Structures are given as structure tokens and as C-alpha cells.
């Protein structure tokens, strides 16, 4: 250990500090004694309101049960809303698929009608071509100067009459098929329009139902103090 200096304590200074501290402690005790609060004097009265402890406990239990039922009801409403939204999405997808199938069916029918028209026109042209080839070896009408020109004239007349009748029959059948196709197209368009209106109404009803359910849930949230009856779903 290195050298050190020993300082003798000042006994006078220490005594003065101890006296001052003692005086402050005495003053503090005296002040506490003077400012001590007196006894409280209250008029006896009955606390707890008009209900007994048993009634208060029962009421508290009922409120707890109602709170549990309300939470359960909210969970059920959430599950129902989620399920309704999923069903609406599924219905929407089904409607889209149905529309695609209907468009494909309309396209297929149109192609079928177009192929039938092409076949009828081709048949008509081939029939005319065949009749024209048959007329090549027969005499013309202006070559007959007499009313009765013989068996060749009679054969030509029969061929000409048959060809004209055949053309008229082909034209008539073609016109009937065109009218039938036109009626089918009108009927298909009317049916598609009805289905589109029905889908629109169904979508509007579903949207209205979802909106009403949302508004009901919102109204239930904005009325937390409303009484709730167990088993009642609104």
C-alpha cells in the first residue's frame, strides 16, 4: 500500500449537522401530527342498489349467456354470408358456362343450316345441269311450225314441263326451308332473350338478398345494447 494522509474528523461540524437533521425530523413529525385527518363520519346507508347480491349475480350470468349467444349468432351469420357468396360465385360461373354452351349450340346450328343451304343450292344447280343436257338432243319450240309436230315435239314438251315443274318444286322447297330456318332463328332468339331476362332477374334477386343480409348484420353491429333472445335469428 502506498503512502496516505489521515485526516481527523471535525467533531464540531458533525454535531452541528446531526442537530440540524434531528430538528428537521422533529418538525416533520410535528407537521404530520397537526395535519392528520380526523375520523370520517358518514350516515349509514344501504349500498348495492335495490337488488340483492343473488339477483345481481343472476343478472350478471344472464348477460354473460346473452353475450355468448350473440357471439355465436354473429359467427353463424358470417358463415351464412360466406356460404351465400360462394353459392353466388358458383351460380355466376355456371351461368357463364351455360352461355358459352348456348353460343356454341347456336354456332353449330347456324353451320348446319349453312351446310344445308349449300347442299340444296348445289342439288338445284346439278338438277338444272342434268335437264339442260337432256334438252340438247331435243328440237326447239320455234322449229315446230304446226300445232302437232310429231312424237319428238311431244317428248320435248313433256321434258320441258317436267323440268319446269321440277324447278318450281325445288324453289318451293327452298323457300319453305328458308322460312322454317327463319322461324327457328326467331324462336331461338326469343328463347335466348327470355333466358337472359331470367338470369338477370335471378342475379338481381341474389344481389338484393346479399345486400339485405349485409345491411341486417350492419344494423345488428350498430345496436350493441339491443336485447337478444336465444334461438331467434332475426
TrEMBL record:
It comes from the Eukaryota. Residues 191-209 have a biased composition (Basic and acidic residues). Keywords: Coiled coil. Residues 32-56, 191-234 are annotated as: Disordered. Residues 78-116 form a coiled coil. Residues 220-234 have a biased composition (Polar residues). It comes from Sagittarius serpentarius. This is ESIP1 protein.
Amino acid at each position: 500500500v502506498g503512502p496516505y494522509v489521515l485526516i481527523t474528523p471535525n467533531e464540531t461540524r458533525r454535531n452541528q449537522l446531526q442537530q440540524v437533521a434531528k430538528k428537521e425530523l422533529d418538525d416533520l413529525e410535528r407537521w404530520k401530527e397537526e395535519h392528520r385527518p380526523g375520523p370520517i363520519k358518514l350516515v349509514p346507508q344501504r349500498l348495492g342498489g335495490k337488488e340483492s347480491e343473488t339477483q345481481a349475480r343472476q343478472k350478471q350470468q344472464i348477460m354473460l349467456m346473452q353475450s355468448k349467444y350473440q357471439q355465436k349468432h354473429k359467427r353463424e351469420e358470417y358463415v351464412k354470408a360466406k356460404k351465400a357468396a360462394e353459392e353466388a360465385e358458383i351460380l355466376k360461373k355456371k351461368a357463364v358456362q351455360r352461355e358459352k354452351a348456348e353460343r356454341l349450340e347456336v354456332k353449330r346450328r347456324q353451320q348446319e343450316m349453312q351446310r344445308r343451304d349449300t347442299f340444296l343450292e348445289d342439288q338445284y344447280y346439278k338438277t338444272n345441269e342434268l335437264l339442260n343436257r337432256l334438252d340438247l338432243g331435243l328440237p326447239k319450240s320455234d322449229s315446230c311450225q304446226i300445232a302437232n309436230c310429231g312424237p319428238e315435239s311431244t317428248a320435248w314438251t313433256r321434258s320441258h314441263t317436267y323440268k319446269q315443274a321440277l324447278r318450281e318444286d325445288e324453289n318451293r322447297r327452298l323457300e319453305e326451308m328458308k322460312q322454317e330456318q327463319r322461324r327457328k332463328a326467331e324462336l331461338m332468339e326469343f328463347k335466348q332473350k327470355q333466358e337472359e331476362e331470367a338470369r338477370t332477374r335471378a342475379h338481381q334477386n341474389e344481389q338484393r338478398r346479399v345486400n339485405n343480409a349485409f345491411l341486417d348484420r350492419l344494423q345488428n353491429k350498430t345496436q350493441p345494447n339491443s336485447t337478444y333472445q336465444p334461438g331467434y335469428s332475426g
